[in-house]
Task: structure prediction
Amino acid sequence: MSRPPNPAVASRRAPRPELLVAVVLDGNTAVEVQALRRALGDRRLARIAPHVTLAPPTTVAAEAMADAAAEVMAGLHRVARRHGAVSLTLGSPTTFAPVAPTVHLPVADPDGDLAALHAAVCRPPMRVERRPFVPHVTLCSGMDPDRIAAACDLLAGYCATLWVQRLSLLVRPAEQPAWITLDDVDLDGVRTVGTGPLATELATGTVVGPAAAALVETAMAGGVVAPAPPPEPPEVTPAGRAPLVITARREGTVVGVAWGAAVDGIEALHGVAVDQVARGQGVGTQLVREWQFRRRWRAARPSFSR
Result:
């Protein structure tokens, strides 16, 4: 007679979601790196965007995911207050073989800026990495060892310079192979307006995070989300520019969000939602002004260079 399943053992064996803090590549560099990954037959091509890991994948219990993600993002916001954009250079492909059969692009960090970001974000609830930090962008993992030397030789002339402009929190849901961006924040993209009980943190990013998404859903259900006041004449921006999202928080709680994106090369504010408890306190006006300011500020910053 077989034993009945042990719920505790079954729970330990069940897949759990994971969190990862990374610099996700964008712009032309991301397109190039994806092409290199495809050429090398990377099996994870559709599972995760090209990136530099800052805090390694960390398993989190499903019931603790919301609190863990909120804690990590609070930490990333503190980091984003202190650190600005960082210029990095991706070097010619190399490998971790024979330790691991990979092909990757090493990341030059001569001033230690990326190492400082790693030290600042690689802390609980994320898993603390004990091994030395070796920043890199993986092109192919689990590669046939007989092909590694040829791949590195073929791509030896590749290099790229890019600006690291934001920190991203990625999640791999349980029983799903793909990583998705749960939330993010621009470096030098967090500031506080107002004082006392009305002090409001305004954070810039490209993603409407879980708490902000819930606020928008509630506002839409109540019929209170309407087009925001028209911004000043929009500037023509390169097609494909990342969305622009401003999230307002008070004492760690989301109280409002403004979002917009480029359509046909024109960047425009699409909407604003404010929590009911914060309405009539200027949060909506603060969000619109910050969105307009960050639109100009982002357009003035270099997105990538060669």
